[in-house]
Amino acid sequence: MTPAARAAAAIAILDGILAGQAAEAALIRWARASRFAGSGDRAAVRDLVFDALRRRRSRAALGGALSGRGLLLGLCREEGADPATLFTGEGHGPPALSAAELAAGRAPTPAEALDLPDWLLPLWHEALGAAAEPVALAMRDRAPVWLRVNLRRADPARAAAALAEEGIATVAHAELPTALRVSEGARRLSGCRAYREGLVELQDLSPQLACALLPEQGSLLDFCAGGGGKALAMAARGAGPITAHDIDAGRMADLPARAERAGVRIRLAAPGKVAGRFDTVLADVPCSGSGTWRRSPEAKWRLTPEALRRLLSVQGGILDQAAGFVAPGGYLAYMTCSVLSAENQGQAHAFLARNPGFEPVAERRFTPLEASDGFYLALMRRR
Ligand SMILES: C[S@@+](CC[C@H](N)C(=O)[O-])C[C@H]1O[C@@H](n2cnc3c(N)ncnc32)[C@H](O)[C@@H]1O
């Protein structure tokens, strides 16, 4: 596909997303209907779409419209490229720009340049203070890819060597050597042997750093296990026995296969059927995902004040429920992939205020400025 044809595809996909389609679903639908597109084309179109979503507000201002065409015109103007190179009006390229389109567009206001919705700005500033602008700007760029070395299968040096044999270059984190940043070849990961044989798992740096702060040994309940990323990380560090639970059992469907690949044992509990007490209970609750908007940029624009209010109420309820499974002297680890105070300190501090039987042990918030995704951990202990 020519660059112009890729732009035309991105424009159509973005229009679908702006009309309410989920980004991944819209990309898959396009790829299925476009057998002529090779893997390089699919990757390029995906990048155009996700880059546009990360910078939706500022690009719409620059391009003069919140539409697929406006966002791609905004890209040209942001990069100082001649729009006529993409809007060719020839072959499979987008139709040439009209005089009205060429006349539209302006520099983004300071608020638009942060690429956040207006309603969120006060919460963002309140949560991040002096880091508010740099973190917002970081969210406009692509996230790095991080791997977690599975110590049950390999040490970091062996895992890195196995990846390198397949053209995937990595750099180990200075303080957490089991965390490898992929510096080259990320697109080869899913098919590579090191991944298929469980030497490494895809996991962002921030949750890896957070899991490293939890007690290594003892029984563990992952109360909101989802795909099981945290349960697998804790199993690889030596915790056990491990029980995974989720209100939606379907979310854990891949966990048995992932555990087998990783060479660890994880018991699944049916929804609402957890029994007993545990040395550590992990509550990785549903949240706004505001720390992960580099990876899921459409979520940034779909979040509403009402949805955030609902999440806050769900989070508080889960914390209270999860606390009931903590053994005396045991730990409750509350986690979100958000940077917003109400979802983080707000929840943890309110929980401690209504549960004097628990005391705070550690609290960490990560942002893309010091780790990778935004993430929060509050570690509490039952007295
Ligand atoms: C942030 S995701 C968990 C991600 C997962 N821990 C991982 O590392 O891959 C939150 C999960 O909480 C689950 N959930 C929502 N409400 C719940 C509840 N009341 N009890 C238990 N799980 C719940 C959701 O189904 C979702 O899978």
Summarize this, please?
The chain is α/β, with parallel strands linked by helices. It is built from 17 helices and eleven strands.
Describe the structure.
The structure is a single chain. The chain is an alpha/beta fold. It has three domains: 3-112, no CATH class; 145-203, Alpha-Beta Plaits (2-Layer Sandwich); 212-382, Rossmann fold, CATH 3.40.50. Helix content is 42%, strand content 16%. It has 17 helices and eleven strands. It has helices at residues 3-18, 23-33, 39-54, 56-63, 68-79, 99-103, 110-113, 121-128, 132-138, 156-165, 193-196, 205-211, 229-237, 255-262, 297-302, 305-323, 345-354; strands at residues 145-149, 169-172, 179-184, 200-202, 220-222, 242-245, 267-269, 278-284, 326-336, 358-366, 375-382. The strands form two sheets. Strands 7-6-5-8-9-11-10 form a seven-stranded mixed β-sheet, sandwiched between helices. α1 packs across α5. The longest helix is centred in the last third of the chain and has 19 residues, at 305-323. The protein is globular, with a radius of gyration of 22 Å. The termini are far apart. S-adenosylmethionine is lined by residues 223-230, 246-248, 251, 284-286, 314, 318.
